[in-house]
């Protein structure tokens, strides 16, 4: 298995797995599928802002999944916090692709100097919650009924991983 930065040629595969998650799971709280132009805009925004988009592929080049992180919130006090996503093709579940992708994201976030990585997970997705726990993520809270899909309210589990324990926050200079 190989983890590498995504390129424009990967967009159809990224679109396919994204839309599969939209259609078949509560992992993405959307009801309308993206277009190729939507995914292209997402990809270009992520890379322009300096955020990674990684792809996992099998030795034969088969697409297994992708992962990325981006800003948690746009306010400056959150500049050292990122929110991530990991998506693996259904047929690649259990292959180690998700673990390899998350390891790559965590390493990149540390290298980039981020302090906290956040996961927002549907409360019924026990597999994703256990997956994140294996990497040291801790449940920080549950936001009840903040979303909806499939004619039901969705609770959001917020999980966090502190990337550099003991770091002190940067000093901010406030204008006069």
From TrEMBL:
Q: Give the SUPFAM superfamilies listed for this entry.
A: Acyl-CoA N-acyltransferases (Nat) (SSF55729)
One Pfam match: Acetyltransf_1
Which PROSITE patterns has this protein been placed in? Answer: GNAT
Question: Keywords, A to Z?
Answer: Acyltransferase, Transferase
Which InterPro entries does the annotation name? Acyl_CoA_acyltransferase (IPR016181), GNAT_dom (IPR000182)
| MF annotations from Gene Ontology | acyltransferase activity, transferring groups other than amino-acyl groups
Output this protein's name. Answer: Acetyltransferase
């Amino acid at each position: 298995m190989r983890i590498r930065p995504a390129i424009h040629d990967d967009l159809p595969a990224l679109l396919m797995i994204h839309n599969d998650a939209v259609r078949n799971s509560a992992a993405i709280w959307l009801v309308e599928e993206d277009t190729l132009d939507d995914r292209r805009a997402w990809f270009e925004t992520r890379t322009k802002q300096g955020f990674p988009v990684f792809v996992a592929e099998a030795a034969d080049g088969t697409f297994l999944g992708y992962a990325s992180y981006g800003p948690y919130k746009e306010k400056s006090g959150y500049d050292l916090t990122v929110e991530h996503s990991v998506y693996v093709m259904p047929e690649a579940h259990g292959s180690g692709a998700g673990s390899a992708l998350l390891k790559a994201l965590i390493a990149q976030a540390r290298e980039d100097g981020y302090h906290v990585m956040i996961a927002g997970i549907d409360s019924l997705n026990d597999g994703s919650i256990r997956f994140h726990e294996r990497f040291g993520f801790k449940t920080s809270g549950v936001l009840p009924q903040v979303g909806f899909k499939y004619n039901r309210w969705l609770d959001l589990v917020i999980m966090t991983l502190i990337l550099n324990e003991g770091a002190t926050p940067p000093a901010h200079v406030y204008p006069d």
